[in-house]
């Protein structure tokens, strides 16, 4: 059993609003996201026209947020593709394991914040699309 793009969704975070002082949104382990956060990284200074991502993960869960600016995330489960425009800091995209993702159309000055369930592990990546399609067609549980 593997996840499909339909299992990935936008999570809208609460906004704690102060009049004329701005807003705060919060992510806590196991509350807003269905995993424990073990790593945070962020992507910035992405030149116009450049795509990022272009890989899948075997085990990793991620919440991807546009904390500033705007970009598009394209998810692909080998059968179906879905695009999500992230353009508000309180709207995160939950990406489950086994989904190919590409990040594109970064606006100038945008910052992509990623909350991830595991520490960096290159062996968790599938970077070759043909290998990804083989992985999707193989019905074994992810990571096995
Ligand atoms: P990668 O995940 O391939 O970037 P993207 O998918 O956004 O294009 O990461 C690019 C490089 O950054 C990778 O080769 C190694 C390094 N990196 C780390 O060292 N630790 C990390 O947590 C991440 C996400 C990347």
Strand order of the largest sheet: 1-9-6-11-4
Tell me, what's the shape? globular
Number of helices: 1
The assigned structural class equals mainly beta
- Quick one: biggest sheet? 5 strands, antiparallel
- What is the radius of gyration computed over CA atoms, rounded to a whole number of angstroms? 15 Å
Mean pLDDT: 95
Can you list the ligands bound to this structure? thymidine-5'-diphosphate
Number of E-type strands: 12
Distance between the termini: 12 Å
Strand content: 35-45%
Unreliable spans are: none
Order of helices and strands: EEEEEEEEEEEEH
Helix share bin: under 10%
Structure notes:
The protein is mainly β and 144 residues long. Helix content is 6%, strand content 40%. The protein contains 1 helix and 12 strands. It has one helix at residues 129-137, and strands spanning 9-12, 16-18, 22-24, 39-43, 52-57, 62-68, 71-76, 81-86, 91-95, 100-104, 111-116, 125-126. The strands form 3 sheets. The chain has a 5-stranded antiparallel β-sheet, with no helix packed on it. Strands 8-7-10-5-12 form a 5-stranded antiparallel β-sheet. A two-stranded antiparallel sheet has the order 2-3. A hairpin with a 4-residue loop joins strand 7 (71-76) and strand 8. It is globular, with a radius of gyration of 15 Å. The protein binds thymidine-5'-diphosphate.
